[in-house]
Specification:
2 copies of one chain form a homodimer.
Chain A (H helix, E strand, L loop, with lengths): L1 E5 L7 H14 L5 E6 L1 H7 L9 E5 L10 H7 L4 H10 L5 E4 L3 H12 L9 E2 L1 E4 L4 E5 L9 H17 L7 E5 L10 H10 L5 E6 L1 H4 L6 E3 L2 H26 L3 H9 L1 H10 L8 E4 L4 E4 L6 H16 L2 H26 L1
Parallel strand pairs in A: 1-2, 1-4, 2-3, 4-12, 7-10, 8-9, 8-10
Antiparallel strand pairs in A: 5-11, 6-7, 11-12
Amino acid sequence: MRLAVDVMGGDHGPGVVVTGALTALEASDAIRELILVGKESEIAAAASGIASRPRVRLLHATEVVEMEDAPMDVLRRKKDSSMGRAVDLVARGEADAVLSCGNTGALLAAATVKLRRLPGIDRAGIATVIPTPENEFVLLDAGANVEAKPIHLAHYALMGSIFSAEVLGYSKPRVGLLSNGTEESKGNELTQEAYRLCKQLDIHFIGNIEGHDLFAGRVDVVVCDGFVGNITLKTSESLAKGMFRLLKRELTATPLRRLGAWLSRGAFQSIKRRMDPDMYGSAPLLGLNGVVFKSHAGASEKAIRNGIRLATEAFRHHINDLIVTRAADASQRLAAVSTSSVAAT
Amino acid sequence: MRLAVDVMGGDHGPGVVVTGALTALEASDAIRELILVGKESEIAAAASGIASRPRVRLLHATEVVEMEDAPMDVLRRKKDSSMGRAVDLVARGEADAVLSCGNTGALLAAATVKLRRLPGIDRAGIATVIPTPENEFVLLDAGANVEAKPIHLAHYALMGSIFSAEVLGYSKPRVGLLSNGTEESKGNELTQEAYRLCKQLDIHFIGNIEGHDLFAGRVDVVVCDGFVGNITLKTSESLAKGMFRLLKRELTATPLRRLGAWLSRGAFQSIKRRMDPDMYGSAPLLGLNGVVFKSHAGASEKAIRNGIRLATEAFRHHINDLIVTRAADASQRLAAVSTSSVAAT
């Protein structure tokens, strides 16, 4: 795989991204070429002799997409941004995948315009892997599009199922529609219609799920619009962080507690590993005609390294080819339903 | 205060509710009369000599609202339900407040029909108190109504602010609109218009908040529609439970870890107390012309006891009178805006 990495978008500067990417490269023979896109001087400063390393190529770009930039403005005005140039490499066939930790909206806009969507898919969605004590579930859309139509949720269900099966290795992922209760009658207008569509798909659809199901090992793919998904993702991150903070505060409050915590430190290490949000480190923008991964702005070296591993897996499993095939099948199934429901009325 | 308690709705049977209510009664002189509503024989079986206890009255009701019952069906067909009878007591002025752990939709329907809404308020919302490592925030609507209009969210903001200030004692509660980012431009159609309205209210409105803010001590009142609220509440409960389960599993995995956990047990007890969802035990249905509190179906004795304490506080602070006064002020402020925006166009 030839991987383009936009090194400029992160909160911690290009150094963290470059180092993470180089570690990923060392760990994986699957990466034939790593193309680091950004300000050449800053990349060179991040790792000595980087330009002459095997399998590494530098691509200079003069501009940087900022978090405050409006997505469509970026496309029109920042023609030489590292993000845009990195996506261009995929569009021209010079790279097989791209990873960026920059502005999500701008990445979505650039990728949609330059790569287009996959045939049969109307909307791209961000699929974030969330660890639970029992399993990992894929949440999508985690925030690519604030509003969604029922057909978009059905496509998310299909793409999430493929991603979970191929990349995470769940053999028959349980796909649930996130709602305010598990009964079929629950939900709002959007989810009730999406329920009807999801039932027709060739996936293991388990119907409506509610918040209580998420961290109890009862669902592998959680489908919702980007507004709900973004809130659900960030609320979970906030609570997990808060609980770790509270644990630390309480466990260091007295010498006796500190001793106890030290004796049982293996437990805390294991919990941290299990619930580590950097374990996956990036999230695919599914539905685009290209492999596009997004790491969060505050991504650590470890997150970048793991994020690249995830992108490598997605590429290796040809998930976009699968999405196209399965979307064609889905469209026939859904057409059959709407015909029969028209015939019935 | 005279308090009516529907003892029949809980998952654990009337015994738990009756015992919890009697403990609350013993702990509080503020409760002049406790009216236990339900099947007389089951109430009598739950506590010996209950009928002759001071300040306790029994009201027999032959029917029980089940979780599966459709709300409007209950009103039409179960005329002698314990829930309906308990709400009737408030409607007739024989009780000052009612608490039930039964079917939420049925309680909302019964209370709306029998008590009506407060003048100036178009929709009732459930206001659930959620503990965080740093503070407690009120989340509303936590699931009374799946769909909402902007004006409903503005009323939730106002009512939540009053509840937080009066009952939880926050002197200047920070009210935030739950969205997919903190910038004013974030959100969907509903929240963007609600933002415009909330800015006009006489509350400490801090604008959009995102999931990351919830458990970081940055907001005291979280405003959203009942679909998003229900998912946010249940996701948080699910994750907190999952993390306690994981802690227990890991801390008991080896003898050494068990010893360490025993030495630092004070920390875990303190965390459990801090994050205890039973600490408040009930949630008000704000916006109704009467004090109506809902405990969850699986409520423990402790949850019922704490839930009654919360209802007592809400009654003591006359929050409904305050809501009416402040809603009248809000309606003038909002009318002024819509006039000026019409004038501006």
